[in-house]
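Quick illustration for those who missed Monday's session on complexes.
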Amino acid sequence: MQEKFKLGVDFAIEMDAKDELKSYKERFYLKEGELYMDGNSLGACSKDAEEALLNMLEVWKNNKILMWNMEDGKYFKYPQFIGGLFSELLNADKNELTCTNSVTINIHQALATFYKPTKERYKILVDDLNFPTDIHAAVSQVKLKGLDPDDAIKVVKSRDGRIIEEDDIIDGFTEDVAVALLPSLLYRSAQLVDMEKVTKAAHKKGIIIGWDLSHSIGSVPHDFKKIDPDFAVFCTYKHISAGPGSNAILYINKKHFGTEPGFAGWHGNKKETQFQLLHKHDPEIDADAWLTGTPNMLSMAPMEGIVKVYNDAGIENIRKKSLLLTDYFIYLIEKRLAKYGFSNGTPLDHNRRGGHVALEHEEAYRICLALKEKNVIPDFREPNVIRIAPVALYVSFEDVYRLVDILEEIGERKSYEKFSDKRALVV
Ligand SMILES: *Cc1c(COP(=O)(O)O)cnc(C)c1O
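Prediction with pyridoxal-5'-phosphate bound:
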């Protein structure tokens, strides 16, 4: 890796000149002089997302309730239309995808559907580095079945607090595990998990497995035809940039079409008979069966613009640039920042790395405050991680170079010392 990069700014400028994705940056709202490195928490707003949202307002304005029947029912069928836009990013069938609710509720929906504990097989397997909401959902589902989470939640432990070893997960696949719920990419360290290997091992043991792709979607290609998971969920406001609280995606493998949804609702009914308003539920025979209430049109509309941008750029190209950007940043950490106590907490192996870098420092929290003072937006994750996400569509090599200049100055001058260590409400 060392040979590939050079220290000077000329190198960054040269890389940007060669970058085939560089024109996409203009389509995002970025502030002059600000370095936005937090697109893995809340993606930047794009003109395409804005246009699609404004268009949805026009549709409502001009058509009111008639909008549901317009354009061959496009808006009535919008959850699957939007879900289907992700089929390229996932190599999944369009009707295995639908757009609804939040990730948390979609996990509840999937567990309510697939978690059917028996006396012998009653555990949900999770890991100790997953995002908290996934664990909260699993614990409440276990409780709803009248089981004790201390017994029925099986936690695979990380050996070092950064990485979950796939072999440790697989060792956890014992006969008493009913369902496994795991992240594709660990939100703190950016470790990419070998989903195909783990899924195959789960299936060998008769375990239903679901993945939370919230941190990998839009930065890492996924091949669901190969991985073949039972279900998956992900949010669309991180790398995908569909806006704060935009609806999440639920993927249901077609082999489960026809399974009764755990939470039924009238929008999961077959569309042809939905407006007969019968009390007997007659679910769709695809992912739409798992819909519940009226689709959140304004929270989905931005995706009609932005996911097309991702498809147009091509997820393989995005991945290629993203790896170059994170490689380059890691190189600069070693060369210029290590002497100030910074280190890289993200796997070096490309097969194990997602789209952000965990920059570790014992003063991480206060350094984040010092960065914000310098118009750099990162985020902080307890206890010592500054997450830096050079999102391929709107971060340049020169941006990374400038970021390192600022980090170097903060390290050298210890300018973080003037800030309080007391955590803000949102960090
Ligand atoms: C961001 C994120 C979520 C968010 O869940 P919401 O219910 O949409 O707020 C869930 N899981 C993971 C792994 C995440 O990174």
